[in-house]
Amino acid sequence: MELLKEDDEGFTIRWPDAHVSRYTWKWLALHIPGMKENKFAPKYTTKLWNLDLMQGKTPEVGYDQVMDKSSMAGMADLTGNIRKYGFCFVTGTPVCPEATKELIETIGPIRQTHYGGFYDFRADMAKADSAYSNEALDLHTDTTYFTEPAGIQAFHLLSHTPPSSVSDEPEDNKLGGETLLADGFFIAHRLRLERPDSFYTLRKVPVPWHSSGNPDVAVVPDQPYPVITTHQGFFHQIRWNMADRGTMPLDVNHIMFFRAMRHWDFIMRRWNNQLRFQLEPGKVLLFDNWRILHGRTAFVGDRRMCGAYIQRDDFISKWKLTHYDREEVIDANTTQLVGAGMVDKAFVRDNTGIPEGDRVFPLFSLKGRTAIVSGAGAGIGLAVAQALAEAGANVAIWYNSNKQAVAEAEKIEKEFGVKCKAYQVDVVSPEDVERAVDDIVGEFNGRLDIVVANSGIGWPNGAFIDGSAETARKVMAVNVDGVMWCAKAAGKHFRRQKKEGTTLDGKPLDNFLTGSFIATASISGIIVNVPQMQAVYNASKAAVVQFCKSLAVEWTGFSRVNTVSPGYMITEMIDHVSPAMRELWRDGIVMGREGRVKELKGAYLYLASDAASYTTGVDLVVDGGYSVP
Fold it and tell me: A single Gene Ontology molecular function, please (predicted)?
Protein backbone atom coordinates (compact mmCIF):
# COMPACT_ATOMS: atom_id res chain seq x y z
CA MET A 1 0.00 0.00 0.00
CA GLU A 2 1.41 3.41 -1.05
CA LEU A 3 0.40 6.81 0.28
CA LEU A 4 0.02 9.07 -2.76
CA LYS A 5 -1.30 12.23 -1.14
CA GLU A 6 -2.27 13.52 2.29
CA ASP A 7 -3.85 16.90 2.92
CA ASP A 8 -6.30 18.71 5.19
CA GLU A 9 -9.27 17.00 3.53
CA GLY A 10 -8.05 13.41 3.59
CA PHE A 11 -5.61 11.09 1.83
CA THR A 12 -5.18 9.04 -1.34
CA ILE A 13 -3.60 5.57 -1.42
CA ARG A 14 -2.64 3.04 -4.07
CA TRP A 15 -3.31 -0.60 -3.20
CA PRO A 16 -0.94 -3.44 -4.26
CA ASP A 17 -3.29 -4.27 -7.16
CA ALA A 18 -2.85 -0.67 -8.47
CA HIS A 19 -6.35 0.36 -7.39
CA VAL A 20 -6.44 3.94 -6.07
CA SER A 21 -8.72 5.02 -3.20
CA ARG A 22 -9.48 8.46 -1.79
CA TYR A 23 -10.72 8.83 1.82
CA THR A 24 -11.74 12.04 3.54
CA TRP A 25 -11.18 12.49 7.27
CA LYS A 26 -14.88 13.20 7.75
CA TRP A 27 -15.91 10.01 5.96
CA LEU A 28 -13.48 7.96 8.03
CA ALA A 29 -14.74 9.51 11.26
CA LEU A 30 -18.29 8.50 10.35
CA HIS A 31 -17.42 4.98 9.21
CA ILE A 32 -14.95 3.88 11.87
CA PRO A 33 -17.33 2.33 14.41
CA GLY A 34 -17.14 3.75 17.91
CA MET A 35 -15.21 6.82 16.86
CA LYS A 36 -16.68 10.29 16.81
CA GLU A 37 -15.31 13.01 14.59
CA ASN A 38 -12.55 14.44 16.75
CA LYS A 39 -10.39 17.27 15.45
CA PHE A 40 -7.87 16.58 18.24
CA ALA A 41 -7.19 13.00 17.07
CA PRO A 42 -3.58 12.22 16.06
CA LYS A 43 -4.72 11.41 12.52
CA TYR A 44 -5.59 15.06 12.04
CA THR A 45 -2.72 16.62 13.94
CA THR A 46 0.45 14.52 13.54
CA LYS A 47 2.78 13.88 10.62
CA LEU A 48 5.22 10.98 10.60
CA TRP A 49 8.67 11.77 9.28
CA ASN A 50 12.11 10.63 8.26
CA LEU A 51 14.78 12.59 6.37
CA ASP A 52 13.08 12.03 3.02
CA LEU A 53 9.76 13.35 4.31
CA MET A 54 11.35 16.28 6.16
CA GLN A 55 13.05 17.41 2.92
CA GLY A 56 15.76 19.29 4.80
CA LYS A 57 13.33 21.47 6.75
CA THR A 58 13.03 21.42 10.52
CA PRO A 59 10.28 23.19 12.49
CA GLU A 60 11.28 26.27 14.45
CA VAL A 61 9.79 29.39 16.00
CA GLY A 62 11.35 32.54 17.44
CA TYR A 63 11.82 33.03 21.17
CA ASP A 64 10.28 36.51 21.11
CA GLN A 65 7.17 35.15 19.37
CA VAL A 66 6.68 32.46 21.99
CA MET A 67 7.20 34.85 24.89
CA ASP A 68 4.95 37.59 23.44
CA LYS A 69 2.22 37.93 26.06
CA SER A 70 0.02 40.01 23.75
CA SER A 71 -0.46 37.12 21.30
CA MET A 72 -0.68 33.34 21.48
CA ALA A 73 0.45 32.92 17.87
CA GLY A 74 4.03 32.02 18.78
CA MET A 75 2.98 29.51 21.42
CA ALA A 76 0.49 28.05 18.94
CA ASP A 77 3.30 27.58 16.40
CA LEU A 78 5.52 25.95 19.02
CA THR A 79 2.93 23.52 20.38
CA GLY A 80 1.55 22.85 16.91
CA ASN A 81 4.97 21.87 15.59
CA ILE A 82 5.64 19.61 18.56
CA ARG A 83 2.24 17.99 18.13
CA LYS A 84 2.74 17.56 14.38
CA TYR A 85 6.40 16.55 14.11
CA GLY A 86 7.21 15.64 17.70
CA PHE A 87 9.81 18.39 18.07
CA CYS A 88 10.53 22.08 17.47
CA PHE A 89 13.42 24.52 17.89
CA VAL A 90 13.07 27.89 19.61
CA THR A 91 15.61 30.23 18.05
CA GLY A 92 16.99 33.43 19.52
CA THR A 93 16.70 32.27 23.12
CA PRO A 94 18.97 34.18 25.52
CA VAL A 95 21.92 31.94 26.38
CA CYS A 96 21.30 31.56 30.09
CA PRO A 97 19.49 29.09 32.36
CA GLU A 98 17.01 31.71 33.58
CA ALA A 99 15.61 32.47 30.12
CA THR A 100 15.47 28.78 29.25
CA LYS A 101 13.57 27.97 32.42
CA GLU A 102 11.11 30.82 31.79
CA LEU A 103 10.53 29.55 28.24
CA ILE A 104 9.80 26.02 29.42
CA GLU A 105 7.43 27.21 32.13
CA THR A 106 5.31 29.07 29.58
CA ILE A 107 4.18 25.63 28.38
CA GLY A 108 3.60 24.10 31.80
CA PRO A 109 5.08 23.41 35.24
CA ILE A 110 8.46 21.73 35.31
CA ARG A 111 8.26 18.09 36.36
CA GLN A 112 10.24 16.92 39.36
CA THR A 113 12.06 13.57 39.27
CA HIS A 114 14.85 11.98 41.31
CA TYR A 115 17.19 14.05 39.10
CA GLY A 116 15.54 17.22 40.36
CA GLY A 117 13.50 19.68 38.32
CA PHE A 118 15.25 22.15 36.02
CA TYR A 119 18.69 20.77 35.24
CA ASP A 120 21.91 22.67 34.52
CA PHE A 121 24.78 20.22 34.20
CA ARG A 122 28.11 19.21 32.74
CA ALA A 123 29.56 15.79 31.96
CA ASP A 124 30.76 15.27 35.52
CA MET A 125 28.78 12.13 36.47
CA ALA A 126 27.08 14.08 39.25
CA LYS A 127 24.30 11.53 38.75
CA ALA A 128 24.84 7.83 38.05
CA ASP A 129 23.51 8.13 34.53
CA SER A 130 25.28 8.05 31.17
CA ALA A 131 23.57 11.35 30.27
CA TYR A 132 26.00 12.94 32.75
CA SER A 133 29.00 11.55 30.88
CA ASN A 134 30.65 12.35 27.56
CA GLU A 135 29.90 8.91 26.14
CA ALA A 136 27.76 8.27 23.09
CA LEU A 137 24.07 7.70 23.86
CA ASP A 138 22.05 5.40 21.64
CA LEU A 139 18.59 6.49 20.54
CA HIS A 140 16.15 6.17 23.42
CA THR A 141 13.25 7.72 25.28
CA ASP A 142 13.66 9.00 28.83
CA THR A 143 11.99 7.84 32.07
CA THR A 144 10.55 4.62 30.67
CA TYR A 145 10.57 3.38 34.27
CA PHE A 146 7.82 5.77 35.39
CA THR A 147 4.16 4.80 35.11
CA GLU A 148 3.80 8.08 33.22
CA PRO A 149 7.06 8.92 31.43
CA ALA A 150 8.07 12.55 30.99
CA GLY A 151 6.05 14.29 28.30
CA ILE A 152 8.03 17.14 26.76
CA GLN A 153 11.79 17.39 27.16
CA ALA A 154 13.89 20.52 26.56
CA PHE A 155 17.61 20.85 25.82
CA HIS A 156 19.59 24.07 25.58
CA LEU A 157 23.32 23.91 24.88
CA LEU A 158 24.76 26.83 26.84
CA SER A 159 28.39 26.25 25.86
CA HIS A 160 30.80 23.67 24.45
CA THR A 161 34.49 24.52 24.70
CA PRO A 162 37.54 22.49 23.65
CA PRO A 163 39.41 20.46 26.27
CA SER A 164 42.05 22.30 28.25
CA SER A 165 44.73 19.78 27.33
CA VAL A 166 45.95 20.05 23.75
CA SER A 167 46.53 16.29 23.64
CA ASP A 168 42.82 15.71 24.20
CA GLU A 169 41.71 17.74 21.17
CA PRO A 170 40.44 15.62 18.25
CA GLU A 171 42.53 15.72 15.08
CA ASP A 172 39.63 16.98 12.97
CA ASN A 173 38.96 19.79 15.50
CA LYS A 174 35.41 18.54 15.92
CA LEU A 175 34.27 18.27 19.50
CA GLY A 176 31.50 15.74 18.83
CA GLY A 177 28.26 15.72 20.77
CA GLU A 178 26.06 15.58 17.69
CA THR A 179 22.37 15.17 18.61
CA LEU A 180 20.30 12.37 17.06
CA LEU A 181 16.50 12.36 16.72
CA ALA A 182 14.20 9.71 15.27
CA ASP A 183 10.42 9.59 14.96
CA GLY A 184 9.37 6.58 17.05
CA PHE A 185 5.92 6.64 15.46
CA PHE A 186 7.48 6.43 11.99
CA ILE A 187 9.66 3.51 13.08
CA ALA A 188 6.59 1.75 14.50
CA HIS A 189 4.73 2.48 11.25
CA ARG A 190 7.50 0.94 9.15
CA LEU A 191 7.75 -2.04 11.49
CA ARG A 192 4.01 -2.68 11.11
CA LEU A 193 4.34 -2.61 7.32
CA GLU A 194 7.57 -4.62 7.04
CA ARG A 195 7.29 -7.04 9.97
CA PRO A 196 3.72 -7.10 11.31
CA ASP A 197 4.55 -10.07 13.53
CA SER A 198 7.28 -8.07 15.27
CA PHE A 199 5.06 -5.00 15.49
CA TYR A 200 2.38 -6.93 17.35
CA THR A 201 4.99 -8.53 19.60
CA LEU A 202 6.32 -5.12 20.70
CA ARG A 203 2.76 -3.88 21.13
CA LYS A 204 1.70 -6.83 23.26
CA VAL A 205 4.68 -8.01 25.32
CA PRO A 206 5.00 -6.07 28.61
CA VAL A 207 8.56 -5.03 29.44
CA PRO A 208 9.83 -4.70 33.05
CA TRP A 209 11.34 -1.20 32.97
CA HIS A 210 13.34 0.02 35.96
CA SER A 211 15.81 2.66 37.17
CA SER A 212 18.44 1.52 39.63
CA GLY A 213 21.62 3.38 38.70
CA ASN A 214 21.61 5.70 41.71
CA PRO A 215 22.09 4.04 45.13
CA ASP A 216 19.07 5.74 46.71
CA VAL A 217 16.66 5.10 43.79
CA ALA A 218 14.81 1.97 42.62
CA VAL A 219 11.94 3.21 40.45
CA VAL A 220 9.61 0.84 38.58
CA PRO A 221 6.23 1.61 36.97
CA ASP A 222 2.97 0.27 38.38
CA GLN A 223 3.16 -2.57 35.85
CA PRO A 224 5.32 -3.60 32.89
CA TYR A 225 4.49 -1.70 29.69
CA PRO A 226 5.12 -2.64 26.03
CA VAL A 227 7.46 -0.79 23.70
CA ILE A 228 4.58 0.40 21.50
CA THR A 229 1.27 1.67 22.88
CA THR A 230 -1.67 2.50 20.62
CA HIS A 231 -5.00 4.15 21.36
CA GLN A 232 -8.07 3.99 19.09
CA GLY A 233 -5.91 2.80 16.22
CA PHE A 234 -3.30 5.57 16.52
CA PHE A 235 0.25 5.47 17.90
CA HIS A 236 0.18 6.80 21.44
CA GLN A 237 3.51 6.16 23.16
CA ILE A 238 6.94 4.63 22.57
CA ARG A 239 9.14 3.31 25.39
CA TRP A 240 12.60 2.43 24.13
CA ASN A 241 15.66 2.42 26.37
CA MET A 242 17.81 -0.67 26.59
CA ALA A 243 19.60 0.71 29.65
CA ASP A 244 16.29 0.74 31.54
CA ARG A 245 15.02 -2.71 30.53
CA GLY A 246 14.95 -5.33 33.26
CA THR A 247 15.16 -9.10 32.92
CA MET A 248 12.33 -10.50 30.81
CA PRO A 249 10.05 -12.98 32.61
CA LEU A 250 10.15 -16.67 31.75
CA ASP A 251 6.61 -16.81 30.35
CA VAL A 252 7.54 -14.50 27.43
CA ASN A 253 8.37 -16.01 24.05
CA HIS A 254 11.96 -14.76 24.14
CA ILE A 255 12.77 -15.72 20.56
CA MET A 256 9.87 -13.69 19.19
CA PHE A 257 10.56 -10.77 21.53
CA PHE A 258 14.26 -10.38 20.81
CA ARG A 259 13.68 -10.94 17.10
CA ALA A 260 11.15 -8.10 17.21
CA MET A 261 13.68 -5.93 19.08
CA ARG A 262 16.25 -6.55 16.36
CA HIS A 263 13.75 -5.66 13.65
CA TRP A 264 12.94 -2.39 15.45
CA ASP A 265 16.64 -1.63 15.89
CA PHE A 266 17.35 -2.36 12.23
CA ILE A 267 14.71 0.14 11.06
CA MET A 268 15.74 2.71 13.67
CA ARG A 269 19.38 2.69 12.51
CA ARG A 270 18.68 3.39 8.85
CA TRP A 271 20.51 6.59 7.99
CA ASN A 272 17.44 8.31 6.55
CA ASN A 273 15.44 7.61 9.72
CA GLN A 274 17.79 9.66 11.92
CA LEU A 275 18.05 13.44 12.02
CA ARG A 276 21.58 14.56 13.04
CA PHE A 277 22.60 18.07 14.02
CA GLN A 278 24.68 20.09 16.47
CA LEU A 279 22.85 21.88 19.24
CA GLU A 280 23.66 25.58 19.32
CA PRO A 281 23.61 28.16 22.10
CA GLY A 282 20.44 30.21 21.73
CA LYS A 283 18.55 27.42 19.94
CA VAL A 284 16.44 25.38 22.37
CA LEU A 285 15.21 21.94 21.34
CA LEU A 286 11.84 20.78 22.70
CA PHE A 287 10.50 17.34 21.81
CA ASP A 288 7.76 14.86 22.70
CA ASN A 289 9.38 12.15 24.83
CA TRP A 290 6.40 9.85 24.19
CA ARG A 291 7.25 9.84 20.50
CA ILE A 292 10.74 11.08 19.66
CA LEU A 293 13.83 8.99 20.34
CA HIS A 294 16.94 11.03 21.09
CA GLY A 295 20.64 10.27 21.41
CA ARG A 296 24.06 11.83 20.89
CA THR A 297 27.54 11.02 19.69
CA ALA A 298 30.50 11.02 22.07
CA PHE A 299 32.24 14.33 22.69
CA VAL A 300 35.28 15.94 24.23
CA GLY A 301 35.65 19.23 26.04
CA ASP A 302 33.47 21.06 28.52
CA ARG A 303 29.80 20.89 27.52
CA ARG A 304 27.17 22.71 29.58
CA MET A 305 23.49 21.87 29.07
CA CYS A 306 20.27 22.93 30.71
CA GLY A 307 16.67 21.86 30.32
CA ALA A 308 13.72 20.16 31.99
CA TYR A 309 10.75 17.83 31.66
CA ILE A 310 7.09 18.86 31.34
CA GLN A 311 4.09 16.64 32.01
CA ARG A 312 2.46 15.58 28.74
CA ASP A 313 -1.01 16.53 29.99
CA ASP A 314 0.16 20.11 30.49
CA PHE A 315 1.55 20.23 26.96
CA ILE A 316 -1.62 18.77 25.41
CA SER A 317 -3.71 21.29 27.32
CA LYS A 318 -1.55 24.18 26.08
CA TRP A 319 -1.66 22.86 22.52
CA LYS A 320 -5.44 22.56 22.50
CA LEU A 321 -6.06 25.96 24.06
CA THR A 322 -3.74 27.72 21.62
CA HIS A 323 -5.48 26.16 18.60
CA TYR A 324 -9.16 25.91 19.57
CA ASP A 325 -11.75 27.79 21.56
CA ARG A 326 -11.95 26.71 25.16
CA GLU A 327 -15.60 25.73 24.67
CA GLU A 328 -14.62 23.37 21.84
CA VAL A 329 -12.00 21.73 24.03
CA ILE A 330 -14.35 21.28 26.97
CA ASP A 331 -17.13 19.97 24.72
CA ALA A 332 -14.80 17.40 23.16
CA ASN A 333 -13.69 16.28 26.62
CA THR A 334 -17.18 15.92 28.06
CA THR A 335 -19.57 15.12 25.20
CA GLN A 336 -19.62 11.39 24.63
CA LEU A 337 -20.86 9.52 21.59
CA VAL A 338 -24.39 8.33 22.34
CA GLY A 339 -23.71 4.86 21.02
CA ALA A 340 -21.20 2.98 18.92
CA GLY A 341 -21.78 3.65 15.24
CA MET A 342 -24.20 6.47 16.04
CA VAL A 343 -24.28 10.12 15.06
CA ASP A 344 -26.82 12.48 16.63
CA LYS A 345 -28.53 9.52 18.34
CA ALA A 346 -29.09 7.72 15.02
CA PHE A 347 -27.21 4.76 13.57
CA VAL A 348 -24.94 5.59 10.66
CA ARG A 349 -26.70 4.74 7.42
CA ASP A 350 -25.47 1.80 5.35
CA ASN A 351 -22.66 0.94 7.77
CA THR A 352 -22.42 -2.65 6.53
CA GLY A 353 -22.03 -4.12 3.07
CA ILE A 354 -24.34 -6.37 1.08
CA PRO A 355 -23.20 -9.73 -0.35
CA GLU A 356 -22.72 -9.85 -4.10
CA GLY A 357 -24.93 -12.00 -6.31
CA ASP A 358 -28.38 -13.51 -5.86
CA ARG A 359 -27.62 -17.22 -5.52
CA VAL A 360 -27.88 -18.69 -2.06
CA PHE A 361 -25.26 -21.45 -1.96
CA PRO A 362 -22.27 -19.10 -2.48
CA LEU A 363 -23.41 -17.15 0.59
CA PHE A 364 -22.56 -20.16 2.77
CA SER A 365 -19.02 -20.47 1.41
CA LEU A 366 -16.23 -19.65 3.87
CA LYS A 367 -13.40 -20.32 1.46
CA GLY A 368 -10.19 -18.56 2.45
CA ARG A 369 -11.56 -17.24 5.73
CA THR A 370 -10.12 -17.83 9.19
CA ALA A 371 -12.20 -19.19 12.06
CA ILE A 372 -11.46 -19.85 15.72
CA VAL A 373 -13.61 -22.25 17.75
CA SER A 374 -13.03 -22.60 21.49
CA GLY A 375 -13.97 -25.72 23.41
CA ALA A 376 -13.57 -27.72 20.21
CA GLY A 377 -11.95 -30.90 21.47
CA ALA A 378 -15.28 -32.72 21.30
CA GLY A 379 -19.03 -32.21 21.31
CA ILE A 380 -20.61 -29.04 19.93
CA GLY A 381 -17.31 -27.23 19.40
CA LEU A 382 -15.84 -30.04 17.33
CA ALA A 383 -19.00 -30.30 15.22
CA VAL A 384 -18.90 -26.55 14.57
CA ALA A 385 -15.23 -26.70 13.59
CA GLN A 386 -16.00 -29.51 11.15
CA ALA A 387 -18.86 -27.52 9.63
CA LEU A 388 -16.81 -24.38 9.13
CA ALA A 389 -13.95 -26.38 7.62
CA GLU A 390 -16.33 -28.18 5.26
CA ALA A 391 -17.51 -24.75 4.09
CA GLY A 392 -13.91 -23.82 3.26
CA ALA A 393 -12.64 -21.98 6.34
CA ASN A 394 -9.20 -22.47 7.84
CA VAL A 395 -9.92 -23.34 11.45
CA ALA A 396 -8.04 -23.01 14.73
CA ILE A 397 -9.58 -25.21 17.40
CA TRP A 398 -9.00 -24.50 21.08
CA TYR A 399 -8.98 -26.94 23.94
CA ASN A 400 -8.24 -26.73 27.63
CA SER A 401 -7.47 -30.28 28.76
CA ASN A 402 -8.86 -32.54 26.02
CA LYS A 403 -5.74 -33.23 23.97
CA GLN A 404 -7.81 -35.27 21.54
CA ALA A 405 -8.27 -31.91 19.83
CA VAL A 406 -4.79 -32.26 18.30
CA ALA A 407 -5.77 -35.46 16.51
CA GLU A 408 -9.16 -34.01 15.55
CA ALA A 409 -7.44 -31.03 13.94
CA GLU A 410 -5.33 -33.36 11.83
CA LYS A 411 -8.46 -35.24 10.74
CA ILE A 412 -10.23 -32.02 9.76
CA GLU A 413 -7.23 -30.81 7.78
CA LYS A 414 -6.95 -34.08 5.92
CA GLU A 415 -10.68 -34.53 5.27
CA PHE A 416 -11.55 -31.01 4.10
CA GLY A 417 -8.26 -29.80 2.62
CA VAL A 418 -8.03 -26.68 4.78
CA LYS A 419 -5.57 -25.55 7.40
CA CYS A 420 -6.56 -26.71 10.88
CA LYS A 421 -4.48 -26.56 14.02
CA ALA A 422 -5.20 -27.16 17.71
CA TYR A 423 -4.15 -24.71 20.44
CA GLN A 424 -4.28 -25.17 24.20
CA VAL A 425 -5.83 -21.97 25.56
CA ASP A 426 -7.15 -21.00 28.97
CA VAL A 427 -10.20 -18.88 28.12
CA VAL A 428 -10.38 -17.62 31.71
CA SER A 429 -7.10 -15.75 31.16
CA PRO A 430 -7.51 -12.59 29.05
CA GLU A 431 -3.77 -12.53 28.40
CA ASP A 432 -3.74 -16.13 27.19
CA VAL A 433 -6.74 -15.52 24.94
CA GLU A 434 -5.34 -12.35 23.40
CA ARG A 435 -1.96 -13.96 22.82
CA ALA A 436 -3.57 -16.97 21.15
CA VAL A 437 -5.80 -14.87 18.89
CA ASP A 438 -2.88 -12.69 17.80
CA ASP A 439 -0.68 -15.72 17.12
CA ILE A 440 -3.39 -17.42 15.08
CA VAL A 441 -4.07 -14.35 12.97
CA GLY A 442 -0.35 -14.15 12.26
CA GLU A 443 -0.23 -17.82 11.23
CA PHE A 444 -3.54 -17.94 9.32
CA ASN A 445 -3.00 -15.53 6.40
CA GLY A 446 -3.10 -12.42 8.59
CA ARG A 447 -6.88 -12.31 8.90
CA LEU A 448 -9.72 -13.24 11.26
CA ASP A 449 -13.31 -13.71 10.09
CA ILE A 450 -15.18 -15.90 12.57
CA VAL A 451 -14.86 -16.61 16.27
CA VAL A 452 -17.10 -19.12 18.03
CA ALA A 453 -16.84 -18.83 21.82
CA ASN A 454 -18.04 -22.28 22.77
CA SER A 455 -16.14 -23.17 25.94
CA GLY A 456 -18.41 -23.94 28.85
CA ILE A 457 -18.88 -26.08 31.94
CA GLY A 458 -21.94 -27.24 33.86
CA TRP A 459 -23.08 -26.91 37.47
CA PRO A 460 -22.69 -30.23 39.32
CA ASN A 461 -23.54 -29.17 42.88
CA GLY A 462 -27.33 -29.29 43.08
CA ALA A 463 -29.01 -26.46 44.99
CA PHE A 464 -27.13 -23.17 44.80
CA ILE A 465 -27.50 -22.59 48.52
CA ASP A 466 -25.62 -25.82 49.24
CA GLY A 467 -23.00 -25.44 46.51
CA SER A 468 -19.51 -24.07 46.89
CA ALA A 469 -18.56 -20.51 46.10
CA GLU A 470 -15.49 -21.81 44.31
CA THR A 471 -17.60 -23.85 41.88
CA ALA A 472 -19.92 -20.92 41.25
CA ARG A 473 -16.99 -18.66 40.49
CA LYS A 474 -15.50 -21.23 38.13
CA VAL A 475 -18.76 -21.63 36.20
CA MET A 476 -19.09 -17.87 35.76
CA ALA A 477 -15.40 -17.52 34.88
CA VAL A 478 -15.51 -20.10 32.09
CA ASN A 479 -19.03 -19.48 30.78
CA VAL A 480 -19.13 -15.67 31.01
CA ASP A 481 -15.59 -14.34 31.35
CA GLY A 482 -14.36 -16.78 28.71
CA VAL A 483 -16.85 -15.40 26.20
CA MET A 484 -15.95 -11.81 27.05
CA TRP A 485 -12.20 -12.33 26.65
CA CYS A 486 -12.71 -14.11 23.33
CA ALA A 487 -14.87 -11.21 22.16
CA LYS A 488 -12.39 -8.58 23.31
CA ALA A 489 -9.45 -10.19 21.54
CA ALA A 490 -11.41 -10.92 18.35
CA GLY A 491 -13.12 -7.56 18.17
CA LYS A 492 -9.82 -5.70 17.93
CA HIS A 493 -8.98 -7.59 14.75
CA PHE A 494 -12.47 -7.25 13.28
CA ARG A 495 -12.36 -3.50 13.89
CA ARG A 496 -8.87 -3.09 12.42
CA GLN A 497 -9.74 -5.11 9.33
CA LYS A 498 -12.88 -3.09 8.66
CA LYS A 499 -11.02 0.15 9.27
CA GLU A 500 -7.89 -0.58 7.25
CA GLY A 501 -9.22 -3.06 4.69
CA THR A 502 -6.05 -5.11 4.86
CA THR A 503 -4.65 -8.29 6.29
CA LEU A 504 -2.09 -8.08 9.05
CA ASP A 505 0.73 -7.87 6.50
CA GLY A 506 -0.90 -5.04 4.54
CA LYS A 507 -2.46 -7.01 1.69
CA PRO A 508 -5.98 -6.09 0.48
CA LEU A 509 -8.59 -7.94 2.52
CA ASP A 510 -10.85 -9.79 0.11
CA ASN A 511 -14.28 -11.22 0.84
CA PHE A 512 -14.80 -9.47 4.19
CA LEU A 513 -18.10 -7.72 4.90
CA THR A 514 -17.83 -7.89 8.69
CA GLY A 515 -16.52 -10.22 11.32
CA SER A 516 -18.84 -12.78 12.87
CA PHE A 517 -18.72 -13.47 16.60
CA ILE A 518 -20.89 -16.34 17.82
CA ALA A 519 -21.22 -17.46 21.43
CA THR A 520 -22.74 -20.70 22.58
CA ALA A 521 -25.45 -19.92 25.10
CA SER A 522 -28.21 -22.38 26.06
CA ILE A 523 -31.95 -22.63 26.45
CA SER A 524 -31.00 -22.60 30.13
CA GLY A 525 -30.59 -18.86 29.68
CA ILE A 526 -34.28 -18.46 28.83
CA ILE A 527 -35.94 -21.27 30.81
CA VAL A 528 -35.65 -22.88 34.25
CA ASN A 529 -34.46 -26.48 34.09
CA VAL A 530 -37.21 -28.02 36.20
CA PRO A 531 -36.65 -30.20 38.16
CA GLN A 532 -32.87 -29.64 37.95
CA MET A 533 -31.29 -26.99 40.15
CA GLN A 534 -29.08 -24.98 37.79
CA ALA A 535 -29.34 -21.36 38.99
CA VAL A 536 -25.67 -20.49 38.45
CA TYR A 537 -25.42 -22.20 35.07
CA ASN A 538 -28.68 -20.61 33.92
CA ALA A 539 -27.49 -17.19 35.04
CA SER A 540 -24.22 -17.63 33.16
CA LYS A 541 -25.99 -18.44 29.91
CA ALA A 542 -28.48 -15.60 30.29
CA ALA A 543 -25.51 -13.28 30.77
CA VAL A 544 -23.95 -14.54 27.54
CA VAL A 545 -27.13 -13.80 25.57
CA GLN A 546 -27.48 -10.27 26.92
CA PHE A 547 -23.76 -9.55 26.58
CA CYS A 548 -23.86 -10.50 22.90
CA LYS A 549 -27.02 -8.49 22.21
CA SER A 550 -25.32 -5.44 23.70
CA LEU A 551 -22.11 -6.17 21.81
CA ALA A 552 -24.05 -6.36 18.54
CA VAL A 553 -24.85 -2.66 19.01
CA GLU A 554 -21.35 -1.69 20.16
CA TRP A 555 -19.79 -3.43 17.16
CA THR A 556 -22.08 -1.87 14.58
CA GLY A 557 -20.34 -1.77 11.23
CA PHE A 558 -17.41 -4.10 11.80
CA SER A 559 -18.88 -7.32 13.23
CA ARG A 560 -22.12 -9.20 13.62
CA VAL A 561 -22.66 -10.74 17.06
CA ASN A 562 -25.09 -13.58 17.73
CA THR A 563 -25.66 -16.51 20.05
CA VAL A 564 -26.85 -20.07 19.57
CA SER A 565 -28.90 -21.60 22.38
CA PRO A 566 -28.90 -25.38 22.03
CA GLY A 567 -31.47 -27.46 23.85
CA TYR A 568 -30.86 -30.89 25.34
CA MET A 569 -28.12 -32.38 23.17
CA ILE A 570 -26.29 -35.69 23.42
CA THR A 571 -22.77 -34.60 24.40
CA GLU A 572 -20.21 -35.54 27.03
CA MET A 573 -21.77 -32.93 29.33
CA ILE A 574 -24.80 -35.16 29.99
CA ASP A 575 -22.84 -38.32 30.81
CA HIS A 576 -23.52 -37.77 34.51
CA VAL A 577 -27.28 -37.29 34.05
CA SER A 578 -29.49 -40.16 35.18
CA PRO A 579 -31.71 -42.02 32.68
CA ALA A 580 -34.77 -40.91 34.66
CA MET A 581 -33.85 -37.24 34.28
CA ARG A 582 -33.29 -37.66 30.57
CA GLU A 583 -36.76 -39.20 30.27
CA LEU A 584 -38.18 -36.05 31.86
CA TRP A 585 -36.32 -33.97 29.28
CA ARG A 586 -37.79 -35.94 26.41
CA ASP A 587 -41.27 -35.52 27.86
CA GLY A 588 -40.93 -31.76 27.41
CA ILE A 589 -39.38 -31.73 23.92
CA VAL A 590 -41.88 -31.22 21.11
CA MET A 591 -39.85 -33.49 18.83
CA GLY A 592 -39.72 -36.15 21.55
CA ARG A 593 -35.97 -36.70 21.52
CA GLU A 594 -32.64 -35.14 22.38
CA GLY A 595 -30.64 -33.43 19.66
CA ARG A 596 -27.41 -34.55 18.04
CA VAL A 597 -24.52 -32.13 17.69
CA LYS A 598 -24.55 -32.49 13.92
CA GLU A 599 -27.99 -30.87 13.99
CA LEU A 600 -26.35 -27.66 15.20
CA LYS A 601 -23.93 -27.37 12.30
CA GLY A 602 -26.38 -25.54 10.07
CA ALA A 603 -27.19 -22.92 12.70
CA TYR A 604 -23.56 -22.04 13.32
CA LEU A 605 -22.67 -22.10 9.63
CA TYR A 606 -25.55 -19.75 8.86
CA LEU A 607 -24.46 -17.20 11.47
CA ALA A 608 -20.80 -17.49 10.45
CA SER A 609 -21.46 -16.93 6.75
CA ASP A 610 -22.67 -14.10 4.53
CA ALA A 611 -26.05 -15.83 4.46
CA ALA A 612 -26.55 -14.06 7.81
CA SER A 613 -25.27 -10.68 6.58
CA TYR A 614 -28.46 -9.02 7.89
CA THR A 615 -28.55 -10.95 11.16
CA THR A 616 -27.07 -9.54 14.36
CA GLY A 617 -28.07 -9.49 18.02
CA VAL A 618 -30.04 -12.72 17.59
CA ASP A 619 -30.25 -15.68 19.96
CA LEU A 620 -30.89 -18.64 17.66
CA VAL A 621 -32.66 -21.33 19.70
CA VAL A 622 -32.17 -24.92 18.51
CA ASP A 623 -34.02 -27.09 21.04
CA GLY A 624 -36.45 -29.37 19.23
CA GLY A 625 -39.30 -27.14 20.39
CA TYR A 626 -38.64 -27.51 24.13
CA SER A 627 -39.05 -23.78 24.81
CA VAL A 628 -42.20 -23.40 22.68
CA PRO A 629 -44.99 -24.55 25.08
Answer: iron ion binding
